[in-house]
Sequence to fold (681 residues):
Amino acid sequence: MEDIMRERYELAVDRIREIRQEKNAPANFQGYFFRMAEFLEQMIELKDEVEHGVGEDVSLDVLRAKNKALYQDILPGNYEISYANPEYACKMLGRGYGQLLSFLYTELRGMIIFSYEKREWDFLVCMELFLQVYSEFEDGQAPEPETIRQVLYWYVNDYCQEMVEYRIQSSVDDTLDFAARRIMEADLDDLRYLYQFGEYVTEAEEKTARFLNTLPKEEVRAMARTYTEGYRIGFINTGKDITKKRTVNIRYCLGFERMIKEAILQFREMKLEPVIYRAAVHTVNKRQQFRIGYYGAIPNPQYDYDHRNDAAIYLDDDFVGRKLRAMQRGYEKYKKQAGEHGGPAVVEIFGELPFVPKSSEMTCSLNEKQQKLQVSMNNEAGQITNRYIKGEERSFTIIAYPVPSIGDHFEEIFRETVKINTLDYNLYASIQQKLIDALDQGKSVHIMGRNGNKTDLRVMLHDLRDRDKETNFENCVADVNIPVGEVFTSPVLQGTNGILHVKKVYLEELQYRELELEFVDGKVARYDCSNFDDPKKNAEYIRENILHNHKTLPMGEFAIGTNTTAYQMAVDHQIQDKLPILIAEKTGPHFAVGDTCYSWAEDTKVYNPDGKEIIARDNEISIRRKDDPGAAYFGCHTDITIPYDELGRIVVECEDGSGIELIRDGRFVLDGTSILNEALK
Fold:
């Protein structure tokens, strides 16, 4: 630590240690500052232990207890009386102060991670932020809430450059190898390694790691090979040169280190070094409640949800300009690393306990102007990223596995998932080609629900000028999007009309009941669900989490899932509501709102195995990228699937008025596709 920083650090530590002996703050704030000072002293002790290697040889039970102590304040049960809970903070401190001081505590909790990663600057500025806020109260008088907001506002703005720049570096620079070193150097048979990351760890992560340790090395290697080969083939199938790339971003959840270690070795055979960055910690780099990067157990999803809009405290025109400039400078500084970066390789998990969020009036919320600013900032941020990590040169892959919370049959479901992820590529390619040949004869597709599903939707297709060389639908097999099993297109918006309805669905870990979207000329015109008694709350819930605060979104994708094996596995084990969208989208027709599947790479020609070019890569909105990129992209793509048991008919409507039936009453009826029904009971 540099001398000046060391001096600042020691002064901050000394001052924090005095606070619990004082009663300078107004009486109703003393409990808050006492608790915050106590937490900071806990962080100082943790930082010292990590620096000096204290506790590395302790038992697994001791590590469990230490880990739980770090996260206990936000765990269900404790959260109800925690200042991290905006509702409790507002109750104890008043709404004007409660939201602000709850946000402060949330930012301070990042110090757990800064301790483990030895990020001394980040640790220091958090301590100084707390002391600056405390100084406004220590004369015995409560300042105006706006005074505290200004302190928080300038903390975010003053340090925006450093925080954003570090985030960009961590996303493309393999020399920041905190996680990669731990994975490669640890004895993975000794589960104590899980506690070296600083993330919250539960029995589920331990059980996952223990189960993977029981698998033969060849089986783990094959799991990793499915994942890494999907990434490599993704470059080949889109005509991109993987040899120009030097790094790959690995995203996963703790417990899968044995597979990830094998994947790192396999990527290195491809001359790709791993970049494994953690889900964002600083508020500046977060995107609502979503975690992008690697992470451990989620201590309390309600905590994340309650703080999803904390940006309301500081989001204005000046901040947006500052953050975008910080991104531009950061990418320019790491321009070489960004240009050599190949894109993400993601291991998703499924089987967590379903989360139905509780709505509270005490949480921060974005006003209408801030919603527009956030949409604009996200759009511009996407454009900046694409200028340095070019869409036409990068690729990705995604695969998913269950975790123990899925139930007593975890190991059986895990093994069945491995089989699903390795289904016969060539068989599905052949069957799906028959669907595509029929779809390419149509000008539109009519989708209807059954069994209480009210879907009645007509999707328009692009005109094919040369049917011998062109197609509308991509034959999606197991490369970037594992497992196998869908054909998809970017539909024409004009004339795409009707109702999309699903009785129950989970999107981004949030549940929606009786979700209904109405499309008019391909854009969402009306939306509703039955999660809350108040229709206004239902609309706000959808607008925030599906529309991502846009007034409307276009239908960016229409697809037909063909993986009946995955569907039946879910039915057999009653885990339909726990499937990740990666698998769920293969278990019926699905419709994405937001960007198309080809966003940022529309000019890259894509071909099916039969040699035909997929020409439906744009729609009437995405084509505006040529003149106004800000109006062409939305920075989101949310898939909504109708399961087979809610699906009545899918009919291709031809120019001459005839129809070609693909699915009737949840079964494939097109010639050459009936084999897909064999998995269905």
In short: The mean pLDDT is 95. The CA atoms of residues 349 and 466 lie 42 Å apart. The two ends are 65 Å apart (CA to CA). The chain has three domains: 3-152, 169-280+287-398, 423-502+514-524+552-679.
